[in-house]
Specification:
The protein is mainly α and about 70 residues long. The chain has three helices and no strands. It is about 85% helix and about 0% strand. The radius of gyration is 17 Å and the shape is elongated.
């Protein structure tokens, strides 16, 4: 779960910096602004999934983690 928290923090940080850089470098009427905003939205979506999985992991994710932990022990 710590890796999920770290992934969440990285996605949010890169997204915030992306919005800042896009705001300074691209004219808001340009198509480039929309592409950068779409990239930031994708980062925010990934961050939300990381946060969701860290608090409410679905069954397939718990099985995957348990399988990896069992493989390390063996």
């Amino acid at each position: 779960r710590v890796l999920l928290w770290a992934s969440f923090a990285v996605c949010m940080g890169v997204g915030a910096v992306g919005v800042l850089v896009a705001g300074f470098t691209v004219d808001q009427s340009a198509v480039g602004w929309q592409h950068r905003l779409l990239a930031v939205a994708a980062l925010n979506l990934a961050a939300n999934y990381c946060l969701w999985f860290s608090f409410f992991p679905p069954a397939f994710y718990r099985r995957w983690i348990a399988r990896d932990a069992a493989a390390e022990v063996a």
